[in-house]
Specification:
Layout (H helix, E strand, L loop, with lengths): L8 H6 L18 H9 L3 E3 L2 E2 L8 E3 L4 E6 L9 E7 L14 E7 L2 E6 L5 E6 L4 E4 L4 E6 L6 E7 L1 H8 L2 H6 L19 E4 L3 E4 L1 E2 L8 E2 L8 E7 L4 E8 L15 E6 L2 E6 L6 E5 L4 E2 L6 E6 L5 E8 L22 E2 L5 E2 L14 E3 L3 E3 L5 H10 L4 E2 L35
Parallel strand pairs: 1-4, 13-16, 20-26
Antiparallel strand pairs: 1-27, 2-21, 3-4, 4-5, 5-11, 6-9, 6-11, 7-8, 7-10, 9-14, 12-13, 15-16, 16-17, 17-23, 18-21, 18-23, 19-20, 19-22, 24-25, 26-28
Helix pairs in contact: 2-3
Pfam families: Cupin_2
GO molecular function: metal ion binding
Protein name: Cupin domain-containing protein
């Protein structure tokens, strides 16, 4: 081989050198259709496992909708669904749009209205406020309006866009298909009036919830002492939602499931533990406005260490009306050794006392890091700072033995031993 010539792959292979196939393919092929579309949108993209506060997510001008926005692409979504923040300036209205992916809206802050219509003549308008939850029926034209002339309005959208983008590879078709889904929206009066039907299993079938903070929940003792819950079915979607609430000093049983469960803290203070089976526990502290998306098949628990009951909203896959993509219904699978109520009503693991314990394990917190295109040295430095991992300690009660790997611990004076478990208590 002479100077300046490229090495012959056959010669390199004969020397035992492997040439990766991806190194011989066009660079553009390494990105999914959804990734390319995200780049074309030109707004910030938040990554990681959690968002500390949806009210504080940095947004930028969003030309397509003529508002300000940011995408949220967290690890646990696995690009089966996604989230975004849309911030409407005072008195402004979004550009009308329709699309072939499902879309939930949760109002983070503000008040306003929404118009929905289709080519069959159906048309509805309704008002929303902080805490409202609604879903746009599939492929209906819609636009949002900020009803305040002084304050911006901020909404969280959760959609199935990544799945459809990566399956069809054509955004023009997704945003301009004329088909009318009358099974999703027939234009009947009161479609977004807030009425609904309660089915067995705490399932509320509706199209609009005025305020998730005030919505009545139902007892669900199977998930922990004092726990309450309601399951939502919206607009005949594959995406669904639920609200859960649990008392002070208690936690949710450890469970795991598939991708895409966007968990938004509505009130209360505490933290979640997340871990792949057999690996170190990670900690995500939360407060109102935090959003966590547990990674696929990571066990996770939510601990209420605050002074009031914790209520959260989950936007996720797993409709009750038959399973929807991309995995079977959202089934919570608790580890062996499910907890039991203690004498004071707190949920305990087998053989554990109800007194506060001393933490014996080191956990870490994980936050999302914001990436703003185009990337600059300053933005990369800021993203690294926001995405840093720090050790934290939080108060709660003894964890059940299925928070493995097992480690011995000792409770504080006046309580019985928690030996053989992870133990948690005041730092």
């Amino acid at each position: 081989m002479t100077d300046g010539q490229k090495p012959d792959p056959r010669v390199e292979l004969s020397k035992g050198k492997r040439i990766a196939q991806e190194d011989r393919l066009p660079q553009e092929w390494r990105k999914s259709a959804y990734e390319r579309w995200l780049e074309s949108e030109g707004i910030p993209v938040v990554s990681g496992v959690a968002v500390p506060d949806l009210r504080a997510v940095d947004v930028a001008p969003w030309p397509r909708l003529e508002v300000r926005g940011a995408y949220i692409r967290l690890l646990g979504a696995e690009d089966t669904n996604n989230a975004y923040i849309a911030e409407l300036p005072p008195g402004k209205t979004t550009v009308p749009e329709r699309h072939l992916f499902e879309e939930f809206f949760f109002v983070v802050d503000g008040r306003g209205g929404c118009e929905v219509w289709n080519q069959a003549g159906g048309r509805q308008a309704f008002e929303w406020q902080t805490g409202s939850l609604f879903s746009i029926p599939l492929n209906c034209v819609h636009r949002l309006h900020n009803g305040s002339g002084r304050e911006p309005a901020r909404l969280l959208g959760v959609t199935t866009a990544p799945l459809l983008m990566n399956l069809i590879h054509n955004s023009e078709f997704l945003f301009n298909c004329p088909f009318v889904f009358l099974d999703r929206f027939d234009g009947r009066e009161g479609y977004f009036g807030g009425e609904g039907t309660l089915y067995p299993g705490r399932v509320w079938d509706t199209n609009f919830v005025a305020d998730v903070q005030r919505f009545q929940l139902h007892d669900w003792a199977e998930r922990g002492a004092g726990g309450k819950n309601v399951m939502f079915e919206f607009a005949n979607n594959s995406l669904c939602a639920h609200i859960s609430e649990f008392p002070v000093g208690t936690y949710k049983k450890a469970h795991r499931h598939g991708p895409g469960a966007h968990v938004i803290i509505l009130n209360g203070q505490g933290y979640s533990l997340l871990w792949p089976e057999g690996e170190e526990l990670k900690e995500v502290p939360w407060r109102p406005g935090t959003m966590v998306v547990p990674p696929v098949n990571w066990f996770h628990q939510h601990f209420n260490s605050g002074a009031q009951p914790t209520r959260y909203l989950a936007l996720r896959w797993g409709r009750v009306r038959g399973p929807g993509p991309p995995h079977p219904p959202h089934v919570h699978r608790a580890r062996r050794g499910a907890g039991r109520p203690g004498a004071d009503g707190r949920l305990l693991g087998p053989g554990l006392s109800s007194g506060p314990c001393t933490r014996t394990s080191r956990n870490t917190s994980i936050w999302g890091a914001r990436v703003t295109p185009p990337s600059t040295p300053a933005s990369r430095s800021a993203s690294a700072a926001r995405g840093s991992i720090s050790a934290l300690r939080r108060p709660t009660w003894c964890s059940p033995t299925w928070c493995s790997p097992v480690k011995a611990g000792t409770c504080r004076a006046g309580t019985r031993s928690c030996s053989g478990t992870y133990a948690f208590g005041p730092a």
